[in-house]
Amino acid sequence: MTKRKLFGTDGVRGKANTEPMTAETAMKIGAAAGRYFTRGDHRHTVVIGKDTRLSGYLIEPALTAGFISVGMDVVLLGPLPTPAVAMLTRSLRADLGVMISASHNAYEDNGIKLFGPDGYKLSDEVEHRIEDMIDTAPHDGRVASDKLGRARRLDDDRGRYTEFAKASFPRGQRLDGLKIVVDCANGAAYDVAPKVLWELGAEVIPLSVKPDGFNINKDCGSLHTDGMRARVLAEHADLGIALDGDADRVVLCDERGEIIDGDQVLALIARTWREEGRLRGGGVVATVMSNLGLERLMQSCGLELVRTQVGDRYVVERMRQDGYNLGGEQSGHLVMSDYATTGDGIVAALQVLAAIVGAEKPASEVLRQFAPVPQLLQNVRLPSMEQAKRVLGSSTVIAAVAEAEARLDGKGRLLVRGSGTEPLVRVMAECDDDALVHSVVSELCGVVERAAV
Fold first, then answer.
1. In terms of CB atoms within 10 Å, which end of the chain has fewer, N or C?
2. DSSP letter at 15?
3. DSSP 195-242
4. What is the tens place of the pLDDT at every residue in 397-429?
5. With 50 as the cut, is the pLDDT of residue 89 above it?
6. Is 395 a residue of the active site?
7. Residue 350 shares a structural domain with residue 390
8. 436 falls within a domain
9. Quick count: other Cβ atoms within 10 Å of Cβ 378?
10. pLDDT at position 3, please?
11. Residues 243, 250 contacting (CB under 8 angstroms)
């Protein structure tokens, strides 16, 4: 199997209008993916959604042209959350789903995420095969002029997803009397997220719901929560919800303005589902980034915490492999396979709200499930992802990592890795000694920076 050039940990991603996020490459990806998923004599269909970035107007028609060139019909959704694309791929019995988004990144970036007919993200093996098809036979599969596909827009896509999300909320429960701030990051959920909450009975205070092509994730959303926190406190709201640009992740804050990350949400849902007899697999799936406090809590509850490499699709793969129905990431990707095939920030928030309503207690008394072990994550930005890989493989950095692990002496965890979507080296350490954590991370970041010179 050849080394991948296009696909990273979450599809293809890069700066818009530069490789690989150009119209030319997008058209090749569409043609190759269309060829790969063309099986049988029926009319084949692909569903395409996007977030609110300006460059969506560049990538969407290019992908469409690629799919049409190999005889595949295209259903265009427009701005809609990533989990909605996955859901509609299955609901419409499409052969393939595509989301055009760079998730939490700034507007300058964009990306292409692919879903199979089952609504799940593609495996490494399938992505390899599609990439090989682009490299070895980029023009194969073009159909005759009378076999070209067609494109159409789906008019009720937002309504379908709104009903899907509402159906995940317990029957008979309502959000009447709750005041909720929802920050939509000027992204894909700017319309549907406030609507879902309002239709379930909440008083909704929407933030960042005026996308202009440039302001997605800008000082808002799940990575920039100050605005949400301030509004929760000013409005005396019961809960704050912050989504990212494509709404597949969520970060919350309670009525006191305290931030609640994905680890705490994962713990709450796990314990709630276990009490209700709904948790399958005897535990939950998380990544190497999840806090040691979560692992200790799961152990105290007689549950297992299974860790995977970073990336929600790796969490999903392990869930499917071993029969778990709950998994997620500290960053706020929460995957509940009873409802969705990928991370869904809105559905995750609704599970939290169901727990709050059921407990009849303030969010601050429900959401803080464990005391986090001191953990520090710092990023070192480098000129390119290739340089980040070279730095991680240098003898200087390898030796420094070994020395740092010796300092932790089995009392905590250390993780030094490259980002799969940005030119970053991420350095994370955690243990009960906060001063040691800060010292280890600071020194390792310095070593990485010097190794890059």
1. C
2. E
3. HHHHHTT-EEEEES----SS-TTTT-GGG--HHHHHHHHHHT-SEEEE
4. 999 999 999 999 888 899 999 987 788 999 999
5. yes
6. no
7. no
8. yes
9. 16
10. 53
11. yes
Cβ contacts of 361 within 8 Å, gap of 6 or more: none
Query: In the numeric block, which tokens belong to residue 48?
Result: 């395409």
CA 356/CA 144 separation, integer angstroms: 58
Task: Tally the domains of the chain.
Answer: 4
Which residue range(s) make up the domain with 194?
177-247
The amino acid at 140: D
Residue 114 has pLDDT above 80, yes or no: yes
Q: How many CB atoms lie within 10 A of CB 329?
A: 26
Sign of CA dihedral 112, 115, 116, 117: negative
Which listed residue (69, 101, 103, 331) is catalytic?
103
Torsion of CA 15, 317, 185, 110, to 10 degrees: 10
Tell me, yes or no, whether 346 and 408 share the same domain: no
pLDDT at 1 over 50: no
Q: What element of type H or E holds 359?
A: helix 345-359
Q: Which of 310, 340, 367 lies at the terminal end of a domain, its last residue?
A: 367
Q: Which distant-in-sequence residues (6+ apart) come within 8 Å of 308 by Cβ?
A: 285, 286, 287, 288, 314, 315, 317, 318
Burial of 3 from C-beta contacts in 10 A (0-12 / 13-18 / 19+)? exposed
Whichever domain contains 432, its CATH number is 3.30.310.50
pLDDT band at 139 (very low <50, low <70, confident <90, very high): low
pLDDT band at 235 (very low <50, low <70, confident <90, very high): very high
